[in-house]
Amino acid sequence: MYAIMQKEDEIMKRKVIQKLVALVSAGTMTAALLAGCGSTGGAAESAGSSDTAAEAGTAADGDSIPVGVISPNTGNLATYGESVLNGINLAVEEINAAGGVLGKNISIISYDDKADSTEGANAFNRLVGDGACAIIGSVTSGVTASLAPLADESQIVLLTPTSTADTITESDNYVFRACFKDSYQGKMAAKFAAEKLGVKKVAVLYASGDAYSAGVRESFDAACSELGLEIVAEESSSSTDDTEFSSQLTNIAASGAEFLFAPYYYNAAGPYIIPQARAAGFEGVIMGADGYDGTTESMLDDKTLYNNCYYTNHYSPDDTSDVVQTFVTAYNDKYGAKPNALAALAYDSAYMIKDAIEKAGSTDRAAIRDAMSGMSFEGVTGKFILDETGTPEKSVAVIEFKDGEAVWNCTLD
């Protein structure tokens, strides 16, 4: 009973904080207008900008606690970066409006990795030099994999909101994540195919040169064997950035598969893979993983092409729980949009860092790492305990496309 009352009290606090944030933002905008366009100095909010800080003050002045963010803010996956920064900035505004952490505001220092490993490493080194006490990032598994050894070497917490590749973190070190991992996600996709859809013959299309796509495919294949699903065709492309899949999809359409698992990102799924599969004559189910989040923004005009398509995800904005709806309302009020899973995971990540700093009682990097290890957390994307590798295991939402809209289908445990 105490836990329920405590949860309700927390939700009420968040709602009050969010109203306060809105008033403060309005006041800030008024002040900016009065000051005119010629003012200089101070730091800008990181959303919508490649390399910025979210609050005035950095480690140099000691007036705030600097937390770094690495995300793809430009390039093909810029939509992902925007969602992540939006979620983090919303959380930080709420945290600071409630009094901050250890009596100080959190300041966000954000750098753009352009979904490139070299750019990501450069951003990481800059953040270490800037004095960040912890880093949230990156978004894609490929970039985060290149950052993980740097985090251990520099002894600074690296918390990825969204990188699901199993190999991102396999030991109790400085690397953590807020999302489930690929082996769990691939297993749940196969479980959905076998138990919810009742199919028997499946096909796979994946990017052999991408850690995320290849990792999800590997776990899906293993689960198919356990669940009695027959893989009748398996095709690949070299990269998730490819745009021509007609040859592979023609082979899949001729294989007799009832279900196609194609773990790519939205920028390939929306304009290329799904329409080309339908054009090749494949009429069965098409399913992806969390990389499909954002596909509705890249669909072709004929939205019926996307019916009978699904993907696994970390949460659904249609969830009626108070904590989810409070977040959805606050996000929509601030950004005028419904938050996707990346925004939700990033929002939770900011609160995880906040909780770790509070538990550590300082901004010492090693103390924050110790506080993160084995963390118990409840947020928008679920309730979980980080395992020995710094990874949560939690429920999976299955999202379905219906006439161009992404809607919740079911939740798998």
The mean pLDDT is 87
Order of helices and strands: HEEHEHEHEEHEHEHEHEEHHHEEEE
Alpha-carbon Rg, integer: 21 Å
Largest sheet: 7 strands, mixed
Instruction: Report the principal-axis shape.
Output: globular
- Classify the secondary structure makeup into a structural class: alpha/beta
Q: Into which percentage range does the β-strand content fall?
A: 15-25%
Termini Cα gap = 25 Å
Name its key features:
globular; disordered N terminus; single chain; alpha/beta; about 20% strand
Summarize the structure.
With 413 residues, the chain is an alpha/beta fold.
Tell me what the structure shows.
The protein has helices spanning 2-35, 78-97, 117-130, 141-154, 182-197, 211-227, 246-253, 266-279, 322-335, 341-360, 365-372, and strands at residues 52-53, 64-71, 105-112, 134-136, 157-160, 175-177, 201-207, 230-237, 259-261, 285-288, 309-313, 376-379, 382-385, 396-402, 405-412. The chain is built from eleven helices and 15 strands. Helices cover 43% and strands 19% of the residues. Helix 2 (78-97) crosses helix 10. Mean pLDDT is 87; it is low at 1-50 and 53-61. It has 413 residues and is α/β, with parallel strands linked by helices. It has a seven-stranded mixed β-sheet, sandwiched between helices. Strands 1-3-2-4-5-6 form a six-stranded mixed β-sheet, with helices on both faces.
